[in-house]
Amino acid sequence: MNEFNRRNFLQASAISAAALASLSICTDAQASILPRKTKVKVAKGEVILFQGDSITDAGRSRDKQKADVANNQPGLGNGYAWLAAGQLLVDRPADELRIFNRGISGHKVFQLAERWQTDCLDLKPDVLSILIGVNDIWHSLDPNLNYKGTVEIYERDYHALVERTKKALPKVTLVVCEPFVLRCGAVTDKWFPEFDKYRAAAKRVADKHHATFVPFQAMFDAAIKFAPPEHWAGDGVHPSSAGAALMAHFWLKAVGA
Amino acid sequence: MNEFNRRNFLQASAISAAALASLSICTDAQASILPRKTKVKVAKGEVILFQGDSITDAGRSRDKQKADVANNQPGLGNGYAWLAAGQLLVDRPADELRIFNRGISGHKVFQLAERWQTDCLDLKPDVLSILIGVNDIWHSLDPNLNYKGTVEIYERDYHALVERTKKALPKVTLVVCEPFVLRCGAVTDKWFPEFDKYRAAAKRVADKHHATFVPFQAMFDAAIKFAPPEHWAGDGVHPSSAGAALMAHFWLKAVGA
Questions:
Q1: CATH number among 3.40.50.1110, 3.40.50.10700, 3.40.190.10, 3.40.50.11030, domain B3-255
Q2: Mutate to test the interface with A, among B90, B95, B231, B240 (most CBs of A within 10 A)
Q3: Distance between CA atoms of B108 and B129, rounded to whole angstroms?
């Protein structure tokens, strides 16, 4: 009565991967929004690390006793990272994956660099996913913050960060997530076309280092055909419940995890 | 390039519902662990309310400005309720669902009754999901707590609560979730067979009031064939990331949302 077999359980748990496939299946006239070549294979026992800013942070606990425990909700926060982790841990219950989050709200790429030894290299991730860039432009748009960053600085620092990472961790599998905004809330016309340059820079970083690129902007551009921008991110930057859930599905699909 | 059509988007977002179907598809020799008859149909614009104890609460904000905003992560907490909400809001972006959580950690069924006017009836839910019972037995097992509850009291109070709800909200669609435990952490042999009586009582409440019953115990009994109990709930009571994600998928499937 209360039985189902392993095959059915695994079918069930392949959910996001299987069904999200359709997110990239387009009509014949359309190309997929997901890249077809680079796919991350997450192997048994591997360490997955999510890095970034507030979107990744999503209220995660800074308490070391929580943050240092793999797969633990308080340490993983309330955003796409935890949602993706939860799904992975359902999909692959016996694979002993160890998933961490070290996103910090407000951070720009140079601030990742400042804490990279402790918050990335020391954790020895097998799979490293980075989502960074929205503050690099946002803080430069706010005269009160006196931040003088440019897209050239962003790209230079991002390249350097990835090079440093590959030197320390030659076997790391890298996932570069596209910075994104929704056109609502804090996101006004003054963000454009500059913001598009940051997205392009992130894509160049991904391509140069053969990383998997997760095109979140393309995803949200598609999503707003079905509900207004505010449904996905009230302030245009921080995803809603729906936005975070969509990101998690899309991330899992993009990395083939 | 960045296009996909509505049909593909909706296919993508039907993920959990579609793929979790397999969670209830068993071999010919096996019966489904999900009931086949009662299915909740959540209609456009409806209010969904999650009620219960710490498993539902999952760290949700008590700040009224957060808790009273529908679909808002801080108000929905970090558990299965938020995960199910996030998925629903991805699946049905244009349907203007309004989802709330009013679980409170530590609560037993009589404590739900004490706050039912404010925390349930006043919210006028169209769909009400209740998960309650683990503290009703747990607190009775702890001599320090001096709680004298029994399964008879649990069932009597639960029936009364549901009757009161149906009187105030005759059209409410009711979802009764099965209390569950994993055999690890705080859950020792002394819980049994008494705990099974609480599960059976919850099932009788569901059946008597024609509610959809979500058999979480059956789900976890199946899940432990694929990873140890601790993978799903470290202390045997509170779901891990994986446990909460599995619950959300299963809840969505069970209620047909």
A1: 3.40.50.1110
A2: B90
A3: 15
